[in-house]
Specification:
By secondary structure, the chain is mainly β. The chain contains five helices and 40 strands. It has a domain of 270 residues. The two termini are 29 Å apart.
Length: 476
């Protein structure tokens, strides 16, 4: 097996070649193959070479036994397996089998409906630079998409604009318990993940400890048995995670669970069974290098934000934290140190700190139309006169808000930048979050991850990032 350094040098070289336009262009040998349900999907897919496309006509493709996809593209010429324009191909497995088992690299799946099996897409060792776009995975007995082959080191995975649910396991689960495998450099963006059931440990989106460099952006995650989104620490393997612009409600446990090496900002969490945001230890990773800033959290029970015992560098600032029943909006567990808590506003009181939280706010008057239980309709945009307006510290304010509206000074607490005319962006609903395309020169537009976006507060992450493989992106 190649060493970690050799593997990453190879992957980085491949990426640089593609970026510089030196990769071999799409050759005349590349072909577009169209099939229908009468054809053998697995045979057709595995016959593809770099740059080839497999176009699936509408209808149900019955898959019997294990369907293994082993073909690989290249950095410059990925293999594309997609729906024919205007048609819906349905890949349906028998109940005892995963629908697709993938070990090829540089693949893109687009516009496919996947159903009927155990797991929807299982990525095995070697499945690097796999992009899943605009797919619909549902009615599976286990998880939607997994990358958890023991011993594997994945790179450059993407799940974009896809609906996952209902499923009998996690919606998306990347990485392994106790760092038994890991994923470096992944994008999970603009997905709708819902009704992930099957037990008390079933999250909507799960990033296991040891994985690194994830961008978890603009997802809607609802109705899960456990946390809606759970992100473990990197254990020093790579760059930090960015969790931004996500909407979560009806989570069976906490809304957002964080451990280490992560920035969580501009998220909205409402109506969860546990804490809105929980920062705590997990599988050998202790709370450290965590920024939780400009989130809006309302909870009917439990704490809006809970920091378990921590002696690392944790920042909790400019968050809107509203606790409705027991009144405990912010809890810092005894024995914690090294944290900075500033300019948080909400309803309720704090335990374990003497400053950094103003609990004089009111759910009824601070928002346009807040739902007590957290289900839509639920408008958590600041109302005129809200206690959140102009109450944030400038040092912790990001450039944009939940809607990708530019923030201006004096800054507002929570996920939103106040507008006297009302919420200019997406309204909470069961479905995809609509977000504007980022400006061409913005960090989001050019695919820069959390390390660069937060350069002003990366002092504690420098040591980790300097000894780890670089952030990479799988496709342009």
């Amino acid at each position: 097996m190649r060493t970690w350094r050799a593997r990453w040098c190879g992957l980085l070289f491949s990426l640089l070649v593609a970026m510089l336009g030196l990769a071999a262009p799409r050759t005349a040998a590349a072909v577009v193959v169209e099939i229908t349900p009468a054809d053998d999907f697995e045979t057709a897919a595995n016959a593809l070479g770099p740059g080839d496309e497999l176009v699936l006509g509408g209808g149900t493709y019955g898959l019997f036994g294990v369907t293994s996809l082993t073909a690989s593209g290249t950095a410059g010429n990925p293999i594309v397996i997609r729906a024919k324009v205007g048609e819906t191909p349905i890949l349906q497995a028998t109940p005892a089998q995963d629908v697709l088992t993938v070990s090829g690299a540089h693949l893109r799946f687009e516009g496919l409906e996947i159903t009927g099996g155990v797991r929807g897409i299982r990525l095995l060792a070697g499945a690097d630079f796999v992009s899943i776009r605009s797919c619909f995975l549902h009615d599976l007995s286990s998880a939607g998409i997994v990358a958890n082959d023991p011993g594997a080191e994945y790179a450059g995975l993407e799940v974009l604009d896809s609906e996952i649910g209902p499923v009998g396991g996690e919606g998306i689960s990347f990485g392994c318990n106790v760092d038994d495998c890991r994923v470096a450099g992944a994008r999970i963006e603009r997905n709708y993940v819902h009704h992930a059931s099957g037990g008390a440990s079933i999250e909507g989106i799960e990033v296991k400890v040891g994985s690194s460099g994830f961008d978890v952006l603009d997802n809607v995650v609802t109705h899960t048995d456990a946390a809606c989104i759970a992100v473990g620490g990197t254990l020093g393997h790579g760059s930090v995670h960015l969790v931004e612009g996500n909407a979560m409600w009806a989570c069976g446990d906490d809304g957002l669970q964080l451990t280490a090496d992560v920035v969580a900002r501009n998220n909205v969490v409402s109506g969860v069974a546990g804490s809105g945001i929980r920062i705590g230890a997990s599988q050998g990773a202790l709370p450290d290098a965590v920024d939780v800033v400009h989130n809006t959290v309302t909870v009917p029970l439990g704490a809006a934000l809970r920091l378990n015992v921590s002696t690392g560098d944790v920042v909790v600032a400019n968050n809107a934290l509203y606790a409705l029943t027991d009144g405990v909006a912010l809890i810092v567990q005894a024995g914690s140190s090294g944290f900075r808590i500033e300019n948080n506003v909400g309803q309720g009181f704090a335990l374990g700190i003497v400053s950094g939280f103003d609990g004089s706010g009111s759910l009824a008057s601070d928002f346009v139309d807040a739902s007590v239980i957290g289900e839509p309709p639920n408008d958590l945009f600041p109302a005129p006169g809200s206690a959140l307006i102009d109450a944030a510290g400038a040092a912790d304010a990001p450039v944009e808000d939940f809607n990708r509206t530019a923030r201006t000074s004096p800054h507002d607490v929570g996920a939103y930048e106040f507008d006297p005319t009302g919420n200019p962006g997406w309204a909470f609903e069961a479905g995809f979050k609509s977000v504007p395309e980022p400006d061409a020169g913005s960090a989001l537009a050019i695919g820069v991850g959390a390390s660069a976006l937060l350069a002003t507060r990366r002092r504690r992450l420098t040591a980790c990032a300097s000894s780890a493989p670089p952030r990479i992106s799988s496709f342009v």
